[in-house]
UniProtKB/TrEMBL annotation:
InterPro entries: SLC26A/SulP_dom (IPR011547), SLC26A/SulP_fam (IPR001902), STAS_dom_sf (IPR036513). It comes from Streptomyces toxytricini (Actinomyces toxytricini). Pfam families: Sulfate_transp. This is SulP family inorganic anion transporter. It is found in: Membrane. SUPFAM superfamilies: SpoIIaa-like (SSF52091). The lineage of its organism: Bacteria, Bacillati, Actinomycetota, Actinomycetes, Kitasatosporales. The chain crosses the membrane at residues 21-41, 88-110, 122-144, 170-189, 201-220, 240-265, 285-308, 328-357, 378-406. Keywords: Membrane, Transmembrane, Transmembrane helix. Residues 17-384 form the SLC26A/SulP transporter domain.
């Protein structure tokens, strides 16, 4: 049974249809405030977030890949989108998202989906932690109705001044109070009775904050609404020409890497939540690419699979793709039939929802155990997050990937150097493991500390890998050792190399 067939098969089974419809309503209620909040935090019209949620539900929901995963605008891309819109303009956002989608489709067709699973978990956690930090700090300015500084570091450094300005401004204090109330509801909602918790916390918090603002007649900034059709801005031909610049191409690569990694890591997490069919990662990458291509063509926000909505979908009892398709239908009907409802939502309430979501991206509880058990991974996580905060998303992720590669190379190039003194004055130096350039300082220090007047035998039979740099360094040391008048260094190569003639080792002349 194909994925599309399984969706429509639910219509012929009333009990299954009711179950999927109820699950879709839960996902819709979770997705609605997040779609609007992510759009506002990204500096674009609120409707663009809803468009992405609609496409993630209806278009991606019908495609094969992951059956229960739900896609839409994600908090993890908010900072990158905000920077892209500020640097290139809203018109270029559609071009960037369109190019990202096409690249994802190509990567999926090339069967690269599985390779995204090879990205170090510490890099992904560091990426999300950096995004979370910038998102949290940035939304503090939105709560107070202040303009955000451009860089993450300036946002952090500006917090003392923000607090001082808020304390002396009546409107800022009012908006901050609305945000604080919303945050308190989000935190306390998990302690509410089970029947009350049936309403998703983000929806409840935003609804209560909106109702309270209206009842008290508070004058706080609200979401600006311009209508669904008015918000759609397809890329123009002049915008497409911007793809020729390195800055735009770098942003496309950053979007592709982060959106793909987040979606496929989310798929792996969702697979652990249910016993149904597993995710086909290449097909899921193609599905995400098609969704982003459509979003780009409409000038909307980029999409990823979102773990918050996906987990809500699974916990609500969904077993087919119908629930995620219907959640997109509910978003479409809400946006078309009741758009004015968006315009009464206080910006401070949405900012509080994003602050709450950003805090969840920061793995505070996992950091201490990670430091105790895998210190190198903890360093990569912190370095990636710090680089994102102080530089940019793309540079931070690249730094994290480079550190992960260096760490992997360092750990896999472990070599043990053993020195044994034999009868007759001969010294045997045995190398065991992987001898690479990363371990040259240790190897050469040991060899150069040997007495210069004694014959040496270099035992390489237990070396699994000897790279070119290390072999050249050993040859150079052997030549220098012979120059003082001692016997040439004898070398014992691995049996496979001796039999196959894999190339000479360090000079063994006269041995």
């Amino acid at each position: 049974m194909t994925d599309t067939t399984s969706v429509f098969a639910a219509f012929r089974r009333p009990a299954l249809f009711r179950k999927e419809a109820m699950a879709s309503l839960v996902v819709f209620l979770v997705a609605l405030p997040l779609c609007v909040g992510v759009a506002v935090a990204s500096g674009v019209p609120a409707e663009l977030g809803l468009i992405t949620g609609i496409i993630g539900g209806i278009v991606v929901g019908l495609m094969p890949g992951s059956r229960l995963q739900v896609s839409g605008p994600a908090a993890g891309l908010t900072v990158l989108v905000f920077e892209a819109v500020r640097e290139f303009g809203l018109g270029m956002l559609g071009v960037i998202v369109l190019a990202t989608g096409l690249l994802q489709v190509v990567l999926g067709w090339a069967r690269c989906g599985r390779w995204f699973r090879a990205i170090s978990v510490s890099v992904v956690q560091g990426m999300l932690a950096g995004i979370g930090l910038v998102l949290v700090v940035g939304q503090l300015y939105t709560v107070a109705g202040a303009e955000q500084p451009h860089s993450g570091l300036r946002k952090i450094l500006g917090i003392p001044g923000l607090l001082a300005d808020t304390a002396t401004s009546g409107p800022a204090l009012t908006a901050a109070g609305v945000g604080a109330f919303t945050g308190a509801v989000l935190v306390a909602w998990k302690k509410a009775p089970a029947r009350v918790r049936a309403v998703p916390a983000p929806l409840a918090a935003v609804a209560l904050a909106t109702a309270g603002t209206a009842a008290l007649g508070l004058d706080v900034p609200k979401v600006e609404v311009q209508g669904l059709l008015a918000a759609i801005q397809p890329p123009s031909l002049s915008d497409l020409g911007g793809l020729g610049t390195m800055a735009v191409l770098g942003t496309v690569l950053a979007f592709t890497l982060i959106a793909s990694a987040e979606s496929l890591f989310s798929a792996a997490a969702v697979d652990r939540m249910h016993d149904g069919p597993r995710t086909h990662y290449d097909k899921e990458l193609v599905a995400q690419g098609v969704g982003n291509t459509v979003c780009g063509a409409l000038g909307a926000l980029p999409m990823t699979a979102v773990i918050v909505r996906s987990s809500a979908n699974v916990q609500a009892g969904a077993t087919t793709q119908l629930s995620r398709v219907l959640h997109g239908v509910w978003l479409l009907l809400f946006t078309v039939l009741w758009p004015t409802a968006i315009g009464v939502i206080p910006l401070a309430a949405l900012a509080a929802v994003l602050i709450h979501a950003g805090c969840k991206l920061i793995p505070v509880k996992a950091l201490a155990p990670l430091w105790r058990e895998h210190r190198g991974e903890a360093v990569i996580l912190c370095a990636t997050a710090a680089a994102i905060v102080t530089t940019s998303m793309f540079e931070g992720v690249v730094l994290g990937l480079l550190l992960a590669v260096v760490k992997c190379a360092w750990e896999t190039s472990k070599v043990q150097v053993t020195v044994r003194e034999l009868v007759g004055g001969r010294t045997v130096v045995a190398l065991t493991g992987n001898a690479t350039f990363l371990r040259l300082p240790h190897i050469l220090e040991t060899l150069e500390a040997l007495p210069r007047g004694r014959p040496v035998e270099l035992d390489l039979t237990e070396v699994r890998h000897l790279d070119h740099a290390c072999r050249a360094a050993l040859e150079g040391w052997a030549e220098r050792h012979r120059e003082v008048g001692t016997a040439p260094v004898r070398v014992r190569e691995p049996a496979a190399q001796e039999a196959g003639g894999a190339g000479p080792g360090p000079s063994a002349a006269g041995g």
